[in-house]
Amino acid sequence: MGVALGLALVLASCGDGKSADSGSGGAKSEIIAIAADPLEYINPLNENGSPGIQVAMAMFAPLVTTDPNTGKLLNVMADSVTPDKTSQTWTIKLKPGNTFQNGQPLTAKDYVDSWNMTAEGSNAWKNNGFFSKIEGYDAMNPPTPDGATPKPTSVKALSGLKQVDDLTFTVKLKVPFSQFGLTLQYLGLAPLPEEVRKNPDAYKRKPIGNGPYKLAADWNAGDDIKLAKWDGYKGPNPPEADSITYRFIPNADTAYNEFLAGNVDFVDVPSTKVKSFKTDAPDQWVTSVSSGANYLVIPAWDARYKNPKLRHAFSMAIDRKAFADLVGLAEPAKGLVAPDMAGYRADACKYCDFDPTKAKQLLQEAGGFSGSVNINYNTTSATGQIFAEAIGNMLRQNLGLDVKYTGKQGSEITDLADNRKLDGLRFSGWGHDYPSIEDYLTPMFKSNGDANFSGYNNPALDAVLAKGDAEPDPEKAIAIYQQAEDIALEDMPLIPLYTKSNAYLHSNKIEPRVSKYTGVSALYATFK
Amino acid sequence: MIRFVLRRALAAIPIGVIVTLGVFALVFAMPGDPLRELAGDKPIPAAVMAAKRAQFHLDDPFIVQYLLSMKDILTGHFGTTFAGADIADQLRLRIPVTLKLTLLANAFQWTLGLFFGIYAGFKRNGWIDKSLLLATLVLLAVPGLVAYFAAQYLFGVELKWFPVSGVLEGFPRSYLLPALVIGVLGFAGLARLMRTSIVETVNADFVKTARAKGLGEQRVLWRHILPNALLPVVTFIGIDLAGMFGGAIITESIFNLPGLGQFMFQAIKFKEGGVVVLLSTLAFISFIVINLLVDLLYGVLDPRVRNV
């Protein structure tokens, strides 16, 4: 009876099967697998990471971008970005003749209004924080104690944003910031056209961009995102593909298998396949130079770890080469910034060589360590425990320390650390939003930095960063930021561990763009 | 009969309250901030956090959050997930996917289980019976996770008999491989139960009586042995069908089938109490309904427990 019931339902629902199709027409088409839950909307201003930004990158264009060949800034929608003498007020001129995909001309007003909308905290758009550097942010978002409901405010616009004419607007920052021009390449600042600004919810699934691709078909919940080239895009170096399909496959190992079966053209190599991808797909892989840097975090709130000599002892007791081999596709870190940054120095860290004798001596000079070192690891990561034990064993063998391990959910570890209650060490990593060593030093080491994992606070370092922010000459600014890196390495709130490459597989049809400066891009792949 | 159904439905209400409250409490007790999980590694400004917390009632005390969630469920105002998905839309898309997978998998499981079980029951100690015992031991020892990925690689990637994942090729092609693996992994237990039940029934006194009365073998088999032997199996099938939802979490993830299991997994990952409770309620209702059907079916098979 059960069988009959089952089969009847099976037959009844037979009609709704869709036949497979490999993306919409066009000679040059590619299917890009995204190992994440399907997107629910496309709005660059409300996305602060992959995959939302990755997809938005095809449909929206930034003001400026990094030239993949030279690493220099290249204008896209902007005609010029000019700071005043103090780098506090920036004038942005747009190129004439650009439009949105609905035909409306792209104007300075679109930027000013889109940015004001994002800066309004009650909209809860994720890139709100970007605008905290601009004058008037605090009036729009009055500081609220943790947990309290924010007070409503009638201020709907940033006082620092001013439209000058149709194609020009100025941005006045709270304090001078020489790197502001670089930050403008962040895609999360892309403009929305007026009809979308009026009712963003109605356009969640039909975004109107200003970038190289537009939606080729209706995009409903559960569908692949199908894009077709938009001929109104006039930016430099447009991508080659005529059509692109983004397919969401939440399980990364499944996405990898889909590639091996020949069903997608591009996929990220998941951490479980780092050791096998070169034999699984010979001649079909590429790797990026780096994807940020990874650290061991020392809690500033535990006095036992306070002495810099003890921190240096920990650092020199770690065999980074062996650890990087364990991680796979990784290189030992030699400083606090990623190696693909202008201003990276391969010899920045004086305490990052593996030297157990020196480490023991430093520990002794620091007066030893009382109690046991607790290493926290993320239980939702496949490798968390393995990495924690590797570091723990090195500290135990080389320094004779007593080590214990605590496994917790990642979000719980972050929560405890934010409340300065986490006991012991933990792992963390950081990747930049814009290519400047400043985007490593400010978030992690400035006393009020967004990602100050360790609770580190050194007024001397804050002062050096402020000096760098006020230095208009890029070369000189880098030299100043490097002084800040030196201070952070002496104090060592974070112990540099490794920098990791990402690996990707691509079909024989395409060759992804690989750049020393901008990483690996499937969007900008060339076709064979 | 109607009174019986009504009584069961009423009895389900307090159980439903306990289940939903318990599930909600479990999600609430999970460590970590739900919105932090959504933000990823990047920091989110206080103003945005506060607006999101207010939108999803995360500042309210536990019992208020629970009551608000239940109100949304009972009035059909499902709202959106933390990530911004319309929950009613999601249910519309996902329920058919899980139903198709579950029913196809069960069709395989029942066909294999009943066929081999009945056959082995009548031909005790034959080679089918012995292989069935061996297969049961082997299949029960294979972890689902390993079997799913192995089958996906072998039949999807290497042999290309089935799609690797996803529902692009529609029903039934996209569902065949996962349903077959579930069916093959799960049929052994059913077959063993069916076999034992047949063996017991065949030797029962009433069967001997029937034969002694001179009834034909066909009539003895269809009217006397099978209805009685099926009784314990029907209970097993009922519980098994309702339990498939739990298994769907893993299967749907590996075969990228956008069903309720995947939705549940996302909801637990983001600690979305409201969605977890909604899905638990759906599972609970289907469990109650299936059990009710099983009990009614019992009456059809066995006049002694017929409910008036």
Automatic annotation (TrEMBL), chain A:
Organism: Kribbella antiqua
Coiled coil location: none
Domain Solute-binding protein family, residue spans: 76-451
Pfam name, any one: SBP_bac_5
Name of the protein described by the UniProt record: Peptide/nickel transport system substrate-binding protein/oligopeptide transport system substrate-binding protein
Gene Ontology molecular function terms on file: peptide transmembrane transporter activity
GO cellular component: ATP-binding cassette (ABC) transporter complex; periplasmic space
GO biological process, alphabetically ordered: peptide transport
Automatic annotation (TrEMBL), chain B:
Tagged with keyword Repeat: no
Gene3D superfamilies: MetI-like
Alphabetical keyword list: Cell membrane, Membrane, Transmembrane, Transmembrane helix, Transport
Topology in the lipid bilayer: Multi-pass membrane protein
ABC transmembrane type-1 domain sequence ranges: 95-294
PROSITE patterns, per the entry: ABC_TM1 (PS50928)
Subcellular location as annotated: Cell membrane
GO cellular component: plasma membrane
Pfam family, one: BPD_transp_1_N
Record field: transmembrane: 9-30, 101-120, 132-155, 175-193, 229-255, 275-301
Protein name: Peptide/nickel transport system permease protein/oligopeptide transport system permease protein
UniProt family annotation: Belongs to the binding-protein-dependent transport system permease family.
PANTHER family: INNER MEMBRANE ABC TRANSPORTER (PTHR30465), OLIGOPEPTIDE TRANSPORT SYSTEM PERMEASE PROTEIN APPB (PTHR30465:SF0)
Membrane found in the keyword field: yes
GO biological process, one term: transmembrane transport
CDD domains cross-referenced by the UniProt entry: TM_PBP2
